[in-house]
Design brief:
The complex is a heterodimer of chains A (112) and B (123).
Chain A (H helix, E strand, L loop, with lengths): L8 E4 L5 E6 L10 E6 L6 E4 L13 E6 L2 E6 L8 E9 L6 E4 L3 E5 L1
Chain B lengths: L2 E4 L3 E3 L5 E8 L8 E6 L5 E7 L6 E3 L7 E6 L4 E6 L8 E8 L10 E4 L3 E5 L2
Parallel strand pairs in B: 2-11
Antiparallel strand pairs in B: 1-3, 3-8, 4-5, 4-9, 5-6, 7-8, 9-10, 9-11
Classes of the chains: A mainly beta (112), B mainly beta (123).
Chain lengths: 112, 123
């Protein structure tokens, strides 16, 4: 059971806009930045979004992130076949049981 | 260019220990925290902890306290993660990953990742 909650799957057709949600609590998303990672099959994760909505250099502006309260979203516009991957959200968690980086369970994006 | 190259796959018996290395190049090794993240087969990502390569200070996830040890050798720009008392559910790909922000004291995301090291625990 992951601390951050994501839908297990999402899908869209080429050119569409898709959003992936990530729900947390006051100890993680509610008080800290959100990060998004893309993991293509058989490869290491890649940082897509940092500090809620910032893109590292080289990440297309088709990818955007937002945060409101204890939830966050990743939006992918102009969907392409190469976007088919697993997507994970992450945040720092200030939990009294032990601060840690927490991840969502991942969302498998299928491009139809 | 920044590179993190990890050691090769390991097969261990339950109760044994494993030590995974992560050799960094292309940047100032002591300037960026190094995280360790694992991924069990078909499962999601799990953060294990970080090490500050400059001071050697560590921060472990509570789940791994007492079983994990993260160290570094600055002379060869290499970070290590040792996990002891291995169980079958420790079977996973283990990644090292560099923190995004230099000289930080928190979590800012991981921008460069190693290729991963598969650790298989089986009797």
């Amino acid at each position: 059971q992951s601390v951050l909650t994501q839908p297990p799957s999402a899908s869209g057709t080429p050119g569409q806009r898709v959003t992936i949600s990530c729900s947390g609590s006051s100890s993680n998303i509610g008080s800290n930045y959100v990060y998004w990672y893309q993991q293509l099959p058989g490869t290491a994760p890649k940082l897509l979004i940092y500090r809620n909505n910032q893109r590292p250099s080289g990440v297309p502006d088709r990818f955007s992130g937002s945060k409101s309260g204890t939830s966050a979203s990743l939006a992918i516009s102009g969907l392409r076949s190469e976007d088919e991957a697993d997507y994970y959200c992450a945040a720092w968690d200030d939990s009294l049981s032990g601060p840690a980086v927490v991840f969502g369970g991942g969302t498998k994006l299928t491009v139809l | 260019q920044v590179q993190l190259v990890q050691s090769g796959a390991e097969v261990k018996k339950p109760g044994a220990s494993v030590k995974v290395s992560c050799k960094a190049s292309g940047y100032t090794f002591t300037g960026y925290y190094m995280h360790w993240v694992r991924q069990a087969p078909g499962q999601g990502l799990e953060w294990m902890g970080w090490i500050n390569p400059n001071s050697g200070g560590t921060n472990y996830a509570q789940k791994f306290q007492g079983r994990v040890t993260m160290t570094r050798d600055t002379s060869i720009s290499t970070a290590y993660m040792e996990l002891s008392r291995l169980r079958s559910d420790d079977t996973a790909v283990y990644y090292c990953a560099r923190d995004l922000v230099p000289y930080s004291s928190g979590y800012y995301g991981e921008d460069y990742w190693g290729q991963g090291t598969l650790v298989t625990v089986s009797s």
